[in-house]
Specification:
The protein is of the alpha+beta class and about 100 residues long. It is built from 2 helices and 8 strands, in the order αββββαββββ. A hairpin with a 2-residue loop joins strand 5 and strand 6. It is globular.
């Protein structure tokens, strides 16, 4: 997780006043086969917790192999802001960057 992503996640969690983390899942969908699902929430049974600099990411068992080695970043661009996943396991992605193939 980049420093920018950690700072933004901490800011979002403080604004929500919750003791949670960023839940990340890989789900079927999109034009390339898989999509990322991101939400603020608590860990669920069987989740892998990744903790860096106080920031927590929770990944379910099914999604974990798709995300090994991935870097989580946060970008604030003219066209929108949000978390970005730079995933070395993605062999292809759609033109809009919303879905990927593994």
């Amino acid at each position: 997780m980049t420093e920018v992503a950690r700072a933004k996640l901490s800011e979002l969690l403080a604004a929500e006043a919750v003791d949670a983390g960023l839940r990340v899942s890989v789900i079927p969908g999109g034009c390339s086969g898989f999509e990322y699902s991101l939400a603020l929430g608590a860990a669920e049974d069987g989740d892998q917790a990744i903790v860096e600099g106080g920031a927590r990411i929770y990944v379910d068992r099914v999604s974990l192999p798709y995300l090994l080695g991935a870097e989580f970043d946060y970008e604030d661009r003219f066209q929108g802001a949000g978390f970005v996943i730079n995933n070395p396991n993605a062999t292809a992605s759609c033109g809009c960057g919303k879905s990927f193939q593994a």
